[in-house]
Design a protein that fits this description.
Elements (H helix, E strand, L loop, with lengths): L1 H14 L1 H12 L7 H17 L3 H24 L5 H19 L5 E3 L6 H6 L7 H20 L3 H11 L1 H6 L4 H27 L1 E3 L6 H16 L4 H25 L7 H29 L1
Antiparallel strand pairs: 1-2
Helix pairs in contact: 1-7, 1-12, 2-10, 2-11, 2-12, 3-4, 3-5, 3-10, 4-5, 4-10, 7-12, 8-10, 11-12, 11-13
């Protein structure tokens, strides 16, 4: 049981940047960014490719930069090309499949066998068996602090207002296209960071590793919001991380107990996301009907 908890905590921390990214794009900007799947694999591909050359830390940074570049493509398609946000994400995600293959040398997977990774290097500096969890905690704490601070700045407040009322932002002499560009660049860099972390942890990158990541990220975000609520910005950010940890724990317990067949996990995730979105809506509609009847 202790091994299950440790595994769930480790994976929950390494995948936590994804619900944080979706919190920024989906909750703050009100954009359904489907670039997520491709950005995750892009972070993996760049990280592993650069680490194979002997530069694992540089691979992490370049992976994040590549994710930001992917986000900028989606943003520009949407703001400059007039492409609807969902379709812009699909277009970028489709193109990233070939880009990711090219980064990995047109191979469907790329591995790190005897090369150093961020984890193998930091293991020499961090005592104990739980060094991966400590690294994950440190990185997630940095991301949460950055996001909390950034969204409280003037630029961050403008970005939040863009998602709330884009017409008001235009009337306030703030360029909403620029806000969308910044938001999607940051969110996709977070997603790519998650891919880079997972790739160096498991010493491999796979072209299909990002399949369904956006659904899992939304499930984590919604689960966390259900557990902690959405009463403040700090609580919203912590909810994304909490949801990731809870989802990975649930995932590990299902694999261990086999209460649900492994083949049905994706279906279970889709049901969780649908239920978490539909149930509050139905409750709100029921409350509206009761007020009308009174």
């Amino acid at each position: 049981m202790l091994y299950i908890l440790e595994t769930a905590l480790r994976l929950g921390l390494f995948y936590a940047p994804i619900p944080l990214a979706l919190f920024l794009s989906y909750r703050i900007l009100n954009i359904a960014d489907l670039t997520t799947d491709g950005s995750f694999v892009l972070g993996m591909a760049v990280s592993v490719s650069i680490a194979a050359l002997g530069h694992p830390f540089l691979g992490m940074l370049l992976g994040m930069a590549a994710g930001a570049l992917a986000g900028s493509v989606t943003a520009l398609l949407q703001t400059r090309g007039g492409v609807p946000s969902i379709l812009a994400g699909i277009i970028t995600n489709t193109g990233l499949y070939t880009v990711n293959l090219a980064v990995m040398g047109f191979s469907s997977n790329k591995s790190l066998l005897k090369q150093e990774t961020v984890f193998s290097l930091l293991k020499k500096l961090i005592p104990g068996e739980h060094y991966e969890i400590l690294i994950g905690l440190f990185l997630i704490a940095l991301l949460c602090l950055f996001l909390r601070f950034f969204l409280s700045t003037r630029l961050g407040l403008s970005l939040r207002a863009t998602g709330d009322n884009i017409a008001m932002i235009r009337s306030s002499s703030v360029d909403p296209d620029r806000m969308i560009l910044i938001g999607l660049c940051i969110s996709n860099s977070f997603t790519a960071l998650a891919g880079a972390l997972v790739a160096q942890m498991q010493r491999s990158a796979d072209i299909n590793a990002g399949s369904g990541i956006v659904t899992v990220g939304l499930a984590c975000l919604i689960i966390g919001e259900t557990l902690l609520g959405k009463r403040s910005l700090t609580r919203n950010i912590l909810a994304a991380v909490t949801g990731s940890l809870f989802y990975r724990l649930l995932y590990a317990l299902i694999l261990k107990t086999r209460v649900v067949p492994v083949e049905c996990l994706r279906l279970l995730t889709a049901v969780i996301v649908a239920a978490a979105i539909v149930i509050p809506y139905l409750q709100e509609q029921a409350a509206v009907r009761r007020r009308r009847e009174c």
